[in-house]
TrEMBL record:
<dbReference type="GO" id="GO:0009254">
    <property type="term" value="P:peptidoglycan turnover"/>
</dbReference>
<keyword id="KW-0378">Hydrolase</keyword>
<dbReference type="Pfam" id="PF05036">
    <property type="entry name" value="SPOR"/>
</dbReference>
<dbReference type="GO" id="GO:0009253">
    <property type="term" value="P:peptidoglycan catabolic process"/>
</dbReference>
<dbReference type="GO" id="GO:0042834">
    <property type="term" value="F:peptidoglycan binding"/>
</dbReference>
<dbReference type="Pfam" id="PF01510">
    <property type="entry name" value="Amidase_2"/>
</dbReference>
<dbReference type="InterPro" id="IPR007730">
    <property type="entry name" value="SPOR-like_dom"/>
</dbReference>
<protein>
    <recommendedName>
        <fullName>N-acetylmuramoyl-L-alanine amidase</fullName>
        <ecNumber>3.5.1.28</ecNumber>
    </recommendedName>
</protein>
<dbReference type="GO" id="GO:0071555">
    <property type="term" value="P:cell wall organization"/>
</dbReference>
<dbReference type="InterPro" id="IPR036505">
    <property type="entry name" value="Amidase/PGRP_sf"/>
</dbReference>
<dbReference type="InterPro" id="IPR002502">
    <property type="entry name" value="Amidase_domain"/>
</dbReference>
<feature type="domain" description="SPOR">
    <location>
        <begin position="194"/>
        <end position="233"/>
    </location>
</feature>
<dbReference type="GO" id="GO:0008745">
    <property type="term" value="F:N-acetylmuramoyl-L-alanine amidase activity"/>
</dbReference>
<dbReference type="InterPro" id="IPR036680">
    <property type="entry name" value="SPOR-like_sf"/>
</dbReference>
<dbReference type="InterPro" id="IPR051206">
    <property type="entry name" value="NAMLAA_amidase_2"/>
</dbReference>
<keyword id="KW-0961">Cell wall biogenesis/degradation</keyword>
Amino acid sequence: MNLRKLLLTNNACYKAGKTITPKGIMIHSTGANNPWLKRYVGPDDGLLGKNQYNNHWNQDKPGGRQVCVHAFIGKLADGSIATYQTLPWNHRGWHAGGAANNSHIGFEICEDGLTDASYFSAVYKEAVELCVYLCKLYGFSERDIICHSEGYKRGIASNHADVMHWFPKHGKSMDTFRADVKKLLSAENKPADTVNKKYYRVQIGAYSVKANAEAQLAKAKKAGFTDAFIKYD
């Protein structure tokens, strides 16, 4: 994950200063064919690129709307994918249009034309990694992740289709997304001693007298090298 921070301090949501105890994550997508982060995040930090229309969300009410999310995923000026945190994670966002504003961290994935498999794969992977990061930060599991459309079905968000108008076009759903988060969480939580390791064995000597070899073997085992052995040539 390429996580960066540019808080939208001029947004009325940020200035409201309300906090929450996060209980889950809500995934949104922007609903516009514009994958560039500079459309929503600004001003230019040298990586985003300049928004020539100055219509990013770092203003009081962007486009006259009360909107703000905790992060955006999309393209930097060089075409690479990044995540920008735009609110403190425990700040009450304006993303759900319902009660989920009081309980969920919300982030937007910048949409393109919805047909570019390469772009989708990159932002999907970034979103999985962001959710894993937040799950570890707040003790969530994959079951605590929903999209906006699922929030609507639960009665905690407004009637939006995202992200189920996009994910299925590339063979994905929120169920596969949660499964991918669970898989990565499990891999990162695996104890170190269960991870496959490569060992390099060192021979420390050769002896023509058997008693000397056995004495060296005894020393090695006493020092903790329990898998030491004598090889006869």
